[in-house]
Each structure stands twice: as structure tokens, then as C-alpha cells.
TrEMBL record:
The keyword Oxidoreductase applies. It comes from Streptomyces bingchenggensis (strain BCW-1). InterPro entries: 6-PGluconate_DH-like_C_sf, NAD(P)-bd_dom_sf, UDP-Glc/GDP-Man, UDP-Glc/GDP-Man_DH_C, UDP-Glc/GDP-Man_DH_C_sf, UDP-Glc/GDP-Man_DH_dimer, UDP-Glc/GDP-Man_DH_N, UDPglc_DH_bac. The active site is at 271 (nucleophile). This is UDP-glucose 6-dehydrogenase. Keywords: NAD, Oxidoreductase. It is an enzyme of class 1 (oxidoreductase). Pathway: Nucleotide-sugar biosynthesis; UDP-alpha-D-glucuronate biosynthesis; UDP-alpha-D-glucuronate from UDP-alpha-D-glucose: step 1/1. The keyword NAD applies. One of its GO terms (molecular function) is UDP-glucose 6-dehydrogenase activity. Substrate binds at residues 160-163, 215, 260-264, 268, 334. SUPFAM superfamilies: 6-phosphogluconate dehydrogenase C-terminal domain-like, NAD(P)-binding Rossmann-fold domains, UDP-glucose/GDP-mannose dehydrogenase C-terminal domain.
Length: 446
């Protein structure tokens, strides 16, 4: 009989995973403790903006034309426990308030709520990003609380999806990593991922700690790569070099590679910043803190970029923001997402506002989330309207529509034709030829 799958937690990870599992042919039941989210998902609406997700939901949630009806949602752990053979835990693990460590309360609560309903053999699969050592602890807890006892088994299967590409990354993962303690668990996970495995996705089988570490190691590497190129940008600024050319040139070396070498205002979002901090905290607990002290530097290079962007803008408008209007293009932490968690763009906008400028923000998808987080900033319904009367236009999230902006279209709106590119994604020639002053981080003035 086909496996029945449940997905606990329906955020970016869980909502996408649930829809993808239905797409792979399984009967799926998604759970969230927030009834509003369940109502939205049951109506075929994604609780966040993620390209292709809503279409995928509507192909499988009952009630839509041609839908398979394989994907349903609930708030009941009892229903989930009865329904599933495999339970994916996809709840959030945010940074603890005032600490570097990760807050495990949602994962712990999910296991504690699910376990008492596991009356027959079941595999619980953790996907959340957790500190190394968590899986072993949770496996023991599961066996202790589940009526099925040792037949309620745990596996760890980290998720590497990128926001903006979540659907594609989930359906066609570049690798599948499973931390297991039995052949049965491995076999079940091979069955779940049969389709991507047949397409050639590599399958890496490990123990629990390695599976947990793969995720934090991957994110630390990516964060380090971005901070490396941003450190080079600082040196370029001091020496009148061009970090974009430098990245292009070193990227030709296959050992280095071209990706994740875009200098700018740095990384943000719900993953990289909190994951590297939680990793440092955990290493400290394990007595291995020295191994990760470099991540402190990675973090501070990254945070410095935001302040640097503010300075560049202040200098560009004549040394003070008082009485100046600043247009900010982009509020989300990256394009093709509505996520503003730890967004470098909003951080820069907020700092400039606090220094006395009138800041007007436009973002294609992140306006509601941005307004909720920074209600004191002004918001405009388009790039053109945000640019009205601006003494400087700041490009802070590299949405495609900003790259395609015609400088001539903004000419009549702005007070001064001055564009600052915080993402090194615009074409300097195009803006300069149109009579604008173009400045970017890590690039020569002219
Ligand atoms: C990341 C990991 O890529 C993913 O594998 C993991 O599962 C979750 O965390 P995500 O948070 O969606 O995914 O964003 P990512 O595409 O990695 O970008 C992170 C940040 O780095 C963004 O703010 C982005 O603008 C920035 N970035 C990325 C750069 O500043 N320069 C680059 O060259 C690349």
C-alpha cells in the first residue's frame, strides 16, 4: 500500500514539502497549530509568496478543477497520528531572544504532541535545522512517549531549499541527506524520494550528528563565501579596485566557482544569520568553539555592510540626511520572496530614516510584511512613485524589475539623478549614459 505522509508545520519549508509530496503521488496531511494558515492552505492559498507554490497546492487540494485531492490540512495531532506512516517535522527553529542559540521549543512541542498518537509503526523525519545532538535526544523522547514504543523511529533529513526556488528545490533536490539508525528507515526514505532518486539526485546516508551538521556546515560555507567577497569589496573600496571584476576573474577558477560571490549589502533572511549563530553557540557547548570563531568574523563583515551602505548614501546626499528624501527599491532579504526577516534592505532603510531622511520604500511582493515590521517608513505603490523627489535612489534587493528599470523613466520623478546599487546588479553604463551618478559597494567611483 502507498505510504501516507504527514507534514507538521506549514511555513516556507512545510507548505512546500507537503505540496511536493502530493505531487510525487502520496496522500498527504499537513498540520499547523495556526488555524488561519490551515484555512488558507485548505483554500489553495499559500501563506507566503513563493513562485509556483499556489499552482502546486491547487493541483492537489480538493475542490479545484482537475485536482488530485491528495493534499489536506488539519490542526489535529490525533488525526495526523492516525493517518501517517511517515511524519515530517518542518517547524521553525528561530534564534533565541537575546542569545545566539537556537530556540528548540517548536520542535520539542511537535514531538511531544505527536508521539502520544503514534500507536503503530511510524517513521518521524526531522527536517528543521537543529543543533547537532538534537536528533539523538528527540529519538529517545519519541520512544518514551509513543504507545508504539521503539516502533516509532526517528530519522533526520535536512532541507536545503532556497526561498524563491522552493518548489523546484524540493521536487528536484541537488542531494538528499538522511541520518538514520536502521535499514528500515533508510528503505522508507528511499521509497519517499523514489522519483528524485530516479532522476539522479545523490542520496547520502549518515548517522544523526552528521546529517544535522551537513545543514549548518552548508549554510556556514555559503555565508563565508558571501562575507569573503564582501571583505574583498572593502579592500577594493580602499584601493579603488572593482570587486565585480575581481569576482568574475576568481570565479573562472572551477575550485572557487562563480556562485555566491555577489558583493553588496550582504546576507539576511530566516536562515543564514541565525544558523551561523546557533552553530557557534552549539560548538561552544561542545567545547569546540575555537573551530568556529571565524564565523564571528563572517557575521561581523556581513553586518558591517549595512552600515557601510548607509554611509555611502549619507555621503552621496552631501553628508547629512536631514531634509533629504531617499527612495529604497527592495524590502525583502532576496528577490522572488516576500520574506523580510533580517532583511539587509529594510535594516538600511530603517537606519537612514532614524538619521533624519524621509525614506520611501517599494518592493514588488514584500510591502505588507515590511509595513508590519517597519511601520514608520513610507511606502509607495511603485518604483516610480517611491522615487518622487528623491535625492538618492537606493537599489537594495535585486528584483528583476529593478534591473530592467529605465533610468529615463525616473528622470522626471527624482530631485537628483543619483543611484546607489547595494547589490551590484544594475548596469552602471546604462545609468551613467542616461546622466545619472551611479555608485556601488566595492566599485570605483567612475
Ligand atoms: C539559504 C540556503 O541557500 C539554503 O540552502 C538553506 O536551505 C536556507 O538558507 P535562502 O535563505 O533562501 O537559502 O537564501 P540564499 O539564496 O542562500 O541567500 C541568502 C542571502 O544571501 C540573501 O540575502 C542574498 O541576497 C544574499 N546573497 C546571496 C548575497 O549577498 N550574495 C550572493 O552572492 C548570494
Amino acid at each position: 500500500m502507498a505510504l501516507k505522509i504527514t507534514v507538521i508545520g506549514t511555513g516556507y519549508l512545510g507548505a512546500t514539502h507537503a505540496a511536493a509530496m502530493a505531487e510525487l503521488g502520496f496522500e498527504v496531511l499537513g498540520l499547523d497549530i495556526v488555524p488561519e494558515k490551515i484555512a488558507m492552505l485548505s483554500a489553495g492559498k499559500a501563506p507566503m509568496y513563493e513562485p509556483g507554490l499556489e499552482e502546486l497546492l491547487r493541483r492537489h487540494v480538493p475542490g479545484f478543477e482537475g485536482s488530485t485531492g491528495r493534499l489536506r490540512f488539519t490542526t489535529s495531532y490525533e488525526e495526523v497520528g492516525e493517518f501517517g506512516d511517515i511524519h515530517f517535522v518542518c517547524v521553525t527553529t528561530p534564534q533565541k531572544h537575546g542569545e545566539y542559540a537556537c530556540d528548540m521549543s517548536y520542535v520539542d512541542a511537535a514531538i511531544d504532541s505527536l508521539a502520544p498518537h503514534l500507536r503503530r509503526p511510524a517513521l518521524v523525519v526531522g527536517k528543521s535545522t537543529v543543533p547537532v545532538g538534537s536528533a539523538a535526544r528527540l529519538a529517545a523522547r519519541l520512544t518514551e512517549l509513543a504507545p508504539a514504543g521503539a516502533d516509532a523511529e526517528l530519522a533526520w533529513n535536512p532541507e536545503f531549499l532556497r526561498e524563491g526556488f522552493a518548489v523546484q528545490d524540493t521536487l528536484h533536490p541537488d542531494r538528499i541527506v538522511v541520518g538514520v539508525t536502521s535499514d528500515r528507515a533508510e528503505k522508507l526514505l528511499r521509497e519517499v524520494y523514489e522519483t528524485p532518486l530516479a532522476e539522479g539526485s545523490p542520496f547520502v546516508v549518515t548517522d544523526y550528528p552528521t546529517a544535522e551538521l551537513v545543514k549548518t556546515a552548508a549554510n556556514s560555507f555559503l555565508a563565508t563565501k558571501i562575507s569573503f567577497i564582501n571583505a574583498m569589496a572593502e579592500v577594493c573600496e580602499a584601493s579603488d579596485g572593482d570587486v565585480v571584476k575581481l569576482a568574475e576573474a576568481i570565479g573562472h577558477d572551477e575550485r572557487i566557482g562563480k556562485k555566491f560571490l555577489r558583493a553588496g549589502i550582504g546576507f539576511g533572511g530566516g536562515c543564514l544569520p541565525k544558523d551561523i549563530r546557533a552553530f557557534m553557540a552549539r560548538a561552544g557547548e561542545l567545547g569546540a568553539d575555537q573551530a568556529l570563531t571565524f564565523l564571528r568574523e563572517v557575521d561581523s563583515i556581513n553586518m558591517r555592510r549595512r552600515g557601510h551602505m548607509v554611509e555611502l548614501a549619507r555621503e552621496a546626499v552631501g553628508g547629512s540626511f536631514l531634509g533629504k528624501r531617499v527612495a529604497v527599491l527592495g524590502a525583502t532579504f532576496k528577490p522572488d520572496s516576500d520574506d523580510v526577516r533580517d532583511s539587509p534592505a529594510l535594516n538600511v532603510a530603517g537606519q537612514i530614516h532614524l538619521q533624519g531622511a524621509q525614506v520611501t520604500v517599494f518592493d514588488p511582493k514584500g510591502m505588507d510584511n515590511a509595513r508590519a515590521l517597519f511601520p514608520t517608513l513610507a511606502y509607495a505603490p511603485s518604483a516610480l512613485e517611491a522615487a518622487q523627489g528623491a535625492h538618492a535612489v537606493l537599489h537594495l534587493t535585486e528584483w528583476a524589475e529593478f534591473r530592467e528599470l529605465d533610468p529615463a523613466a525616473l528622470d522626471g520623478a527624482v530631485a537628483e539623478r543619483r543611484i546607489l546599487d547595494g547589490r551590484n546588479a544594475l548596469d552602471p553604463e546604462r545609468w551613467r549614459e542616461a546622466g545619472w551618478t551611479y555608485r556601488a559597494l566595492g566599485r570605483p567611483t567612475v
